[in-house]
Design goal:
9 helices, DNA-binding, homotetramer, mainly alpha
DNA sequence: TATGAATGAGCCTTCATTCAT
DNA sequence: AATGAATGAAGGCTCATTCAT
């Protein structure tokens, strides 16, 4: 009976997983319900039945992957309370990249966000903000403190904080896009250790950048 | 006859310019021939007549805007021969951003590249490489020398060079995307001076990042 | 067990009542099972379970509302045996209009017939005839006698009888349609007294018409 | 060349004519673009190309048939200036019925109006009013004068005028519907002389009705 | 050179229906 | 007795493309 129950929920779940893969690869607009359903082994009407809309399916996928991503790769990656700012930035970048690189559904969420960044579907007004805003603010806090620490003599310039935050996010998202665009690395995805190593270098780069920005206008 | 010639090129040119605007704003897939032709004041068949394909039109637009962009905003922005590496990096970022932010057709090319980065159309296999590779290599050279300069004691690590290059490009492209995604800035575009100022801060950030990467593994 | 029985009939009955409302408002084709079931608080399968078909549900609704209508508004409206022909015509028109105007389920039946008149569903072949034919014949008898009375010198012309009958029905049904089509009256339905008053004027009009037809060809 | 021109316009025209037939028979909602295009020997996209929408096609059909109907069967049917009120009413009813009974496209317009009366498509907000309102007002004027003539002692009661007008229209429209609903007459349509004869009897009936209403409350 | 007419493939969606439980 | 899950058929619409002129 339980197996049955699982199987009953199976279609819905298979639909979400197939959709996650297709949306992540093609983006919202270019993805077609037909392809998704074919992969899921379901009829096209199934989407309408379970999610009402293509929009509804997209929102469901986003929410699903968001929940999953936050659970598996929290922003602080399980850091201890007394972690340094640098450690926290590194953890953040690691989590961000782990969510968006690699294959399989751990990476949907980041890819969806990357897609959404480049070509907003307009579907995710509320849900996307609830997913993205906290992330932004979390990063913002770290950056602000890093700037303050690098230049304690004055209050962090707000536009400098925003600039640094965007630069960091930009570097990460570009990694997600670049792997499809340029054939820099093979089509094969990065392994988690490779992703972590990449994250750490981006962190190092960004720390250097933040400190340079922090002392802007002084030398 | 000359009038004829001019008029002939007129339709073709209006088509390209209208297409540039639409492709830049919507991306290749979402752009429709109808909208382009409506803007150009031409019939839908005109595209197929002049460019054979939607693909053909896209390629033409890309090539056109590329030529235009390189001419108006060369990589080195007219720097003198004996300019420092830092000055050359700053010039490069300025040119990159000037090509992709702002409105009007000076900004098509960057926006096309940004779109292409996020959602490759698959149309630009050859032509895109001819446009993008040289740019990459030019930047690569600057970065390599900057790393060498920051850490003359050893030969620049190749992967470090690539990383820094991608980070710089990522920051720039993100600026192009972000303005549509987040409502950080109004829909109104940045003015050239604002773009230059932004470029200079990104340059400062990147120089800090490059130097941090250059000494990686040493301290 | 009795509770069970009641509940069983409850679902069926709620379905019929919800369907009556929706069919009356939208017509057979435009009505959707989903809307009906939503209103009835039942699952969509319930229709197929209880009535086999959308057709079956429609037939059931028709029969139900017919039975109800005849019971509440009989053709003669409880007239005495010795009522005059004019009184009987007036009663008939009153009952016809009371069945089709006004809101709530007393008015379903007339509205269903009005819909069916304008856009036959093809579902009600037998059942509809059993509902409509007697009504027609009843009216036919009244009309025939009125013609005979108005012109006793000759046997009523059969085509004249049919014409008058159709004219009367046509006037009544048009009242049902008109209220939706023209904004003659507000969306708000007529009260029973208003309906009766309207019926009486249509009766007066029709009596004048019948008499004019009765003497056709004589003056 | 002219033949070509005619043929070029042919598709659009064939579409309108096929649509007129289908809309008249099935109503707006039940009619399908596919059936229309099949009959017209055109692809489904042709509708979109020529009329943008199913709505657009419907509006075009309505306008086309309206223009045609008014031209062929004007309200006054070419009556002379000094025609009596009775003659004018008869002419009106003749034109109304000639527009809606019979087969072929002379009868579309009336059938469309009959359909629209029973189940408003919501498409014809403006165009329908321009077609229907004048007709209504024209009839209204005749009816008002007839009432005044039948009872010169007092000003015609406005609600009486409306009632009579609606009764007349109701009788006519019912004739259009009835032929499909009841099998009173064969599926074969009426010939023009039969239609005229029918119209004249309805006119006689209505005159009797109007006079009865005119003296309402006096005897 | 340039275009209006027309098309076919494909997309999303709705709806009545069926089936296993 | 009743239902949730799932489906197939069909509908309207969009879009890039072709063809004759």
């Amino acid at each position: 009976m339980k197996a049955q129950r699982l199987w009953d929920e199976g279609t819905r779940k298979r639909l979400i997983e197939a959709a996650g893969e297709v949306f992540a690869r093609r983006g919202f607009r270019a993805a077609t319900i037909r392809e998704i359903c074919r992969r899921a082994g379901a009829s096209v009407s199934a989407v309408n039945y379970h999610f009402r809309d293509k929009d509804g399916l997209y929102a469901a996928v986003f929410e699903y992957s968001h929940r999953w991503a936050v659970e598996k790769y929290p922003h602080d990656m399980g850091l201890e309370e007394n972690a340094t700012l640098e450690e926290r930035l590194r953890a953040f970048i690691r989590s961000f990249l782990l969510r968006g690189l690699g294959d399989g559904f751990p990476a949907w969420h980041g890819k969806l966000i990357a897609q959404e960044t480049a070509d907003p579907s307009g579907v995710l007004s509320k849900v996307a903000q609830t997913a993205i805003r906290p992330m932004d603010e979390y990063l913002e806090g770290i950056v602000r403190e890093l700037i303050r620490k690098a230049n304690p003599s004055r209050e962090p310039n707000e536009s400098a904080v925003q600039l640094c935050r965007m630069n960091i996010v930009g570097q990460c998202i570009f990694q997600m896009h670049a792997r499809r665009f340029m054939k820099i690395a093979d089509p094969e995805e990065l392994s988690p250790p490779q992703i972590v190593a990449l994250a750490d270098r981006i962190c190092r780069f960004s720390l250097g950048g933040i400190r340079a920005i922090a002392v802007e206008g002084q030398s």
